[in-house]
């Protein structure tokens, strides 16, 4: 291809067939460069982070634009203003200079209408990320992001930078290409006009060198420079490095959405995606990117936010225990509600109500629907029962054996092979990851059956029966939260939720009957049972 001239090429004026006037518009295509970086056995290609770092270096030799937009291979630009809007934040005279990146929310196409697996993640994007704007800004989410180039180079924000960028002694940090290092000061000047470069042999050679695996040997790429390596979620840590240096970021949301992409609507794929994120979060906690080790430039509450982002899978071990708790009272005559029942329930209801009232306000402020919020609650419980404990297990293994986690790419919807747009939603791929949640489902269905059986055995209007049935509410609540999961593992049958309800009623009835058959006390024993119940040390749920 011949190189385009630097002279603008104006389009044709409006005519009968073409009502648009292009006589004042430069119609040359912007420069488009396709790259294939070197991959070599013995070198970890570092997936997306490796690809981004090569692009960062190569683009420095081509346009060296001070701002860089990044979006995933499965995302696209959906709004022609998407590149202009973040510039308002970058060039803002108030704190634009210190803004390292502008993050858009992720929006998705072809998610099923009721968003069964919370793919839209609206609470996270429109609630959590937006609210971080009040601190140091949202975390970097991997796609739909505009960066300031020098922030990616690991430079300090102007607020903390004594003078202009010093390059002496930086050779080891950035690799050996002098042309790349010489390009760096220009990459910081945001008013610079960009002229197309002439790709001659010398430049081609430079570019080829910058794309090799060996280029990064002994440099800081992948740690203090560029996207961060050796972690399943390079995005959060890369953003974290900037925040800890004192940069801020900005959340930017627009209608129609600036960027859109695809999301996995298959249950197994979705769980694997969440496994990668939660595994990556834990890896972050046990790495040099631990938020506790960041310096004073990290806002105190931002530090708390990052700590939460990197430890949440650990917390859910307790939730799993809570969900399995009914096992205790399936096999023993213990209640699992603390007595005095009334006072305990009162505190519990008050605390839960407060959490949910706050949730409602946040949902309202964020402008999202109640359904988004319900899906968020449900998917949290689904993740908490199977995925997060698995992530914790992986992390423990990694700490002991030193072997990293292998994470697969999120596989994309395969709508082409079916008339049904949401075919993926009804495909079940059985994997061990589904097991813990299935066990929780079974235990809680059985607990509901046993509760009804116990109540029936004692007579429905006794005090004991009342306690047992109230205790059952906890099991029912877990079942409500796991409802999307139950539909998911039913595959095609999940298209008719009625079947699930019939099966549920049958299972509960069966357990109830079995309980009554096995445990129905003889009339003479009733007083004895009641007495022992009165003494039983009563246990409470821990969740
Ligand atoms: O070897 C690889 C693997 C991935 N990619 C890119 O990385 C993107 C993200 O991978 P994907 O499988 O789509 O994962 P998702 O779970 O959809 O991605 C989310 O989570 C990732 C972190 O786990 C972030 O990097 C992404 O930006 C974010 O959208 C892909 O679209 C590709 O563009 C590469 O360039 N090379
Ligand atoms: Mn993706």
Automatic annotation (TrEMBL):
Segments of this protein annotated with the region Disordered: 1-22
One BP annotation, GO: cellulose biosynthetic process
Membrane topology category: Multi-pass membrane protein
Binding sites annotated in the UniProt record for UDP-alpha-D-glucose: 47
Species of origin: Aegilops tauschii subsp. strangulata (Goatgrass)
Main location as per UniProt: Golgi
Transmembrane region(s): 312-332, 344-367, 379-400, 433-461, 467-486, 498-518
InterPro entries in the cross-refs: Cellulose_synth, Nucleotide-diphossugar_trans
UniProt keyword Aminoacyl-tRNA synthetase, yes or no: no
A molecular function (GO) term: cellulose synthase (UDP-forming) activity
Gene3D superfamilies: Spore Coat Polysaccharide Biosynthesis Protein SpsA, Chain A (3.90.550.10)
Protein name (database record): Glycosyltransferase 2-like domain-containing protein
GO cellular component: Golgi membrane
Compartments (UniProt record): Golgi apparatus membrane
Binding site for Mn(2+): 48, 72
Pfam families: Cellulose_synt (PF03552)
Keyword terms of this UniProt record: Cell wall biogenesis/degradation, Glycosyltransferase, Golgi apparatus, Membrane, Transferase, Transmembrane, Transmembrane helix
